[in-house]
Amino acid sequence: MEQVEQKDVEEKAPSVIDRYYTRWYRADMKDKPCEDHCILQHSNRICVVTLAETHPILQEGRTIQTINYQISNACSRLNNKVSGKSKRGGQFLTEFAPLCRITCTDKTEYTIYSCIRGRLLEVNENILETPNLLLEKPSTDGYIAVILPKFEESKSITEKLLSREQFESVVSKRSPAPSQPS
Amino acid sequence: MLPLKEKDKPIARKLLTAGCCARCVLRFCCVSTQASYRQPLQAPKYMETISRANNAAVIETHEDPPNKRPKLDRSVTLPQSEGDASTSANVVPISKGETSCVCPVCLGVLQELCGVIQAKKVCGTIKSEDYQFDTLVLSVSLPAQLCVREVIGSLLTFREKGLALDKDDVIQVKEAFKWVMQNLLLKELSGVAVVTKSTFEVGVEFNHPDTDADCHFLAAACPDCFKPTKNKQSVFTRMAVIKALEKIPDATFLRQYPCPPAQPTRCCYLPDIQCLHLSVFIAGRYNKFCRSLPQTPWLIDGERRMESSVEELIAEHVLSAFRAAGFNFSSSGREDVDVRTLGTGRPFAMELLNPHRSRFSRAEMKQLQETINKSSEKIRVRDLQIVSREAMSRMKEGEEDKSKSYTALVWTHKSIQEEDLAFIHNIKDLVVDQKTPLRVLHRRALAVRPRVIHSMSTRFLDSHHFYLELKTQAGTYIKEFVHGDFGRTKPNMCQLLNSDTDILELDVEVRKMCIVFFGSI
């Protein structure tokens, strides 16, 4: 009985993401296999960068060793400061701007990218304290960064991204990997 | 017929030769008895003498002290103008048989334009607009070139002869006009007092495009007085022109501007008469029972995203009752589209612009409130009343200090039992740090705001639902407290219950708190 109930819950579970966001995907970022990113675009045009369920970090029971927002000698995403309503001062990102580097305990290293053009508003500092958040709740509490695209570009940024259906079809065409995406 | 003294004689002669009207002569002779100006210009006696005399200006002096009402048994003649009889073709019809030459100083403002015909016209407009008023104030706007021409009048009289008459004693055109016109209006509108301060304003704005160029020479003479304007409006405002005229030396003035000036062919005209009633303010409290109604109209790129709004539902009936042109809506706080407003209701105030009707009895206000409440199930209004302008600005007062009560319907991912919620009742004054929610981050600055949740209680519904009642500090984002907003509100309900949670419904209960500026009916 409990199990059936739980499944029902899963099926019609309300979610903030479903209500207010559209999911867009970037598959195989920088041609690295399966390094898929998911961009959650709010109806007010703000975008949240997250790992797609298929990302290697979330596979094979990996644990995270470090998350580093220092992407170069000169630049740390942690130094990003925005002020005022117009969010002045935020670092401007292009699609391939790195947001952070994640090292797992099995020595694998991954770079997470912006995927869209826009002003960096914030990076998730909670995952620095609690890296598990990234593994347990990659779509919500484990988000990577929040980006504000330019007003004029808010519609066009999604042109280079895949919709949910398109992404799922890309994934289904991949050669079977040791652990399937959920 | 003019109450003039011996010393005024040369002034009057000079002005009349230049073609000035009788009233302008009186002004430059510093006659301050209002009644003198109210004598009609085109009285039959005047006409006889005009036709009899030709170019000579004949003035009889009168020995009466200025304050006594003068006996008007003398006549004054006006010289014939050189050209044809001028016609003011634009607006004011001239009665037959009159030779009218437009006064070069007042451009006709003190001639036909302050006569009975004009007064009747103004009254006609006032009556047709159908305002409710006891008193009115007449506001007059004259074209800037009248300042220039006033200087001519001065130059013709005082400055040349070096007469020691104080400029301040000269009666201004606007003042003389009001002396005449206000009296005429009083006669036409019985029972209405024309005063200096009133909630109802009748504005007459005179134009004289023919002589707009009069001021232009000042731009070359005193360029620093004229700042370029952002709008397309003329840079020759009254203020700027007056400033320039004060600066410019007489000699320069006379070089640039003919003295006496050429006789204008047409008098000023009055495009239209503006009636304006001072704004009226109303206030009340509203409840919102609908989960798809924004407080103010929701438009994106000019397109309406959601039908109607709280303010429109209220304004519709208020505007028609007060016959107002528009409104400004202000409320003490606001709620989301999908949140109901329960309890005694949220205080709001409205400024009604240019209301044609401004007086309502308490019974009538109650009637209006009933009308609003009957018209829609989505909102309800109470304590509707007329308030002062202050109420509007005080509406936002103390918004930060208030505490709010909310009821949220919470969904839990994890299956729960009633006992699992017991600990919530014991939580007092919980401080939550809320980063600016993502849903408003596009229009608010990014910041962390600590807010206090004073107390909470629950009502168990089923294994995945319960009602959460909260008393919080004003400005707390309840939705984000429940679902966590990507973990950016800490602590949040997901953490407290150790389960994913979401909010399905929210109601806000606004209690009647310390708002003292208006009471209940």
TrEMBL record, chain A:
One of its GO terms (cellular component) is growth cone. One of its GO terms (biological process) is dendrite morphogenesis. Coiled coil: none annotated. It is found in: Cell projection, Dendrite; Cell projection, Growth cone; Cell projection, Lamellipodium; Nucleus speckle. InterPro entries: Abitram, GCV_H/Fam206, Single_hybrid_motif. It comes from the Eukaryota. It holds the Pfam family GCV_H. SUPFAM superfamilies: Single hybrid motif. GO terms for molecular function: actin filament binding; actin monomer binding. Keywords: Cell projection, Nucleus. Belongs to the ABITRAM family. This is Protein Abitram. It comes from Gouania willdenowi (Blunt-snouted clingfish).
Automatic annotation (TrEMBL), chain B:
Keywords: Isomerase, tRNA processing. Residues 103-275 form the Pus10 N-terminal eukaryotes domain. Pfam families: Pus10_C (PF21238), Pus10_N_euk (PF21237). The keyword Isomerase applies. InterPro entries: PsdUridine_synth_cat_dom_sf, Pus10-like, Pus10-like_C, Pus10_N_euk. One of its GO terms (molecular function) is tRNA pseudouridine(55) synthase activity. It is an enzyme of class 5 (isomerase). One of its GO terms (biological process) is tRNA pseudouridine synthesis. Its EC number is 5.4.99.25. Residues 281-509 form the Pus10-like C-terminal domain. Residues 77-89 have a biased composition (Polar residues). Transmembrane segments: none annotated. Residues 59-89 are annotated as: Disordered. Residues 60-74 have a biased composition (Basic and acidic residues). Gene3D superfamilies: 1.10.10.2050, 3.30.70.2510, 3.30.70.3190. Belongs to the pseudouridine synthase Pus10 family. PANTHER family: TRNA PSEUDOURIDINE SYNTHASE PUS10. This is tRNA pseudouridine(55) synthase. The lineage of its organism: Eukaryota, Metazoa, Chordata, Craniata, Vertebrata. The gene is pus10.
